[in-house]
Specification:
CATH superfamily: Mannitol-specific EII, Chain A
Order of helices and strands: HEHHEEEEEHHH
Shape: globular
Structural class: alpha/beta
Largest sheet: 6 strands, mixed
Number of helices: 6
Strand content: 15-25%
CATH class: Alpha Beta
Number of strands: 6
Mean pLDDT: 93
Radius of gyration: 14 Å
Length: 149
C-alpha cells in the first residue's frame, strides 16, 4: 500500500501546537473530520478509546494513533509535525513530535494492518525521521513520505 493511497497533500499538518496528548488528538480529530467527513467527536472518541488500551507512542519521538471507524469507506492517513514535543506516554518515555494518525473502516483487516506496517516502517527509520524534523513545508513532507513507498 502506498502512502498516496491513504493521504493527500492536505493531510499534512506542520507546526501544530498542542500542550498534551488529549489536545493533540482533539486537534487531529478536527483535521480528520475535514478530510473524511466523519464527525470530529466520533474520531476523537475512537482515537482516545484506542489510546486508553495503551499508548501508540512507540519511541524516538514518534506516535501512530490509529482507530477503526465503521462509517469510513477507505483508509485515511494524517501526518502532523509538532512545534514542541509533548508527553505521549511513549514506550521509551521520550516526548513526541512526529505523529501519523491512521483511520480505517471497521472491516478493513488486511488494509488496516498493511497501512500500519507501512507507516510504522517509515516512523522507525531514523534517517527519515531526521529529514522530517528538518522540513518545514507540508508539501515537502508529503513528498518525502511518498518517496518511502
Amino acid at each position: 500500500m502506498k502512502i498516496s493511497e491513504i493521504m493527500a497533500g492536505d493531510s499534512v499538518v506542520v507546526g501544530l501546537k498542542a500542550n498534551n496528548k488529549r489536545q493533540l488528538l482533539q486537534d487531529l480529530s478536527v483535521k480528520a473530520a475535514e478530510i473524511t467527513g466523519i464527525n470530529e467527536r466520533t474520531v476523537f472518541d475512537t482515537l482516545l478509546e484506542r489510546e486508553n488500551l495503551g499508548s501508540t507512542g512507540f519511541g524516538s519521538g514518534t506516535a501512530l494513533p490509529h482507530a477503526r471507524i465503521p462509517e469510513l469507506k477507505k483508509v485515511y492517513g494524517i501526518f502532523a509535525k509538532l512545534n514542541t514535543p509533548i508527553d505521549f506516554e511513549s514506550i521509551d518515555g521520550k516526548p513526541v513530535d512526529l505523529v501519523f494518525v491512521l483511520l480505517s473502516p471497521e472491516g478493513s483487516g488486511a488494509d488496516h494492518l498493511t497501512a500500519l506496517a507501512q507507516v510504522s516502517r517509515i516512523l522507525k527509520d531514523e534517517s527519515t525521521c531526521k529529514k522530517l524534523r528538518q522540513i518545514d513545508s507540508a508539501e515537502d513532507i508529503y513528498a518525502l513520505l511518498n518517496n518511502q513507498d
